[in-house]
């Protein structure tokens, strides 16, 4: 029988196909010490995340199928993850504000999946969701934050390429090593059918993931166990 979490991830994948990006808010579901975040990030999500944490300890936050969204809420959620020393994992597509949240994890992994080649993190410069105008004033904060959480490992030439975009849809994608035949790191411009592959970089050594070990869904099903105190 499939575990509860496996059923949830299958459900989220189906929702992604059916909704085609029309989701209006982020769904947050708990399973033991795991918190799963799915969908678009909206301003109210930081408060919703805080309330989920009040229900009990969280060890791992799994980001799954999110197009991104509100950066202010993403920063607030990221701060809570950092303060709680939580780990993060990603399953499916995790773009923009979603990728920011993912990068707050103490340990950052990709989830083991039959479709691992489709799991990806997308980074680009902040922009106005309505006008699509690039928010150049917000780029330095995001840049410094990414350098901080990667302990300076994120190559500045790659970071600047990802953030200093010309169109809102320009995006730098990161895939699990050797799973996508088009390359592990690709920069795609909005409206283009072709993407530029960036060779010579390892997504662990540049700080995107903290390990190439895949996180197994079964390990997330384990109930929370408080640290035993010695007598």
TrEMBL record:
GO BP annotations listed: proteolysis
InterPro entries per record: ClpP/crotonase-like_dom_sf, ClpP/TepA
A Pfam family reported for this protein in Swiss-Prot or TrEMBL: CLP_protease
Secretion signal, residue range per the UniProt entry: 1-25
Keyword Signal among UniProt keywords: yes
Keywords noted in UniProt: Hydrolase, Protease, Signal
One function term, GO molecular function aspect: peptidase activity
Domain of life, per lineage: Bacteria
UniProt keyword Hydrolase present: yes
Protein name: ATP-dependent Clp protease proteolytic subunit
Species whose genome carries this gene: Undibacterium hunanense
Lineage, highest ranks first: Bacteria, Pseudomonadati, Pseudomonadota, Betaproteobacteria, Burkholderiales
